[in-house]
Amino acid sequence: MKSKKFIAVLILLNVVVLIGQVWPEGAPPFARAANIVCLVATLAFLVNEIRS
Length: 52
Fold this sequence. Notes:
Blueprint: H1 2-22, H2 31-51
Helix pairs in contact: 1-2
């Protein structure tokens, strides 16, 4: 269950990043931070999945 919540957060972050890429004027002010958090969280998730 914890993994599903984490995946939902990653999807939400990916949506924010996608909005920033497709429509830069519509990106929220925290888009840069969301982009960095998304990349780090996705990397951590994938490394964790590979290990298990």
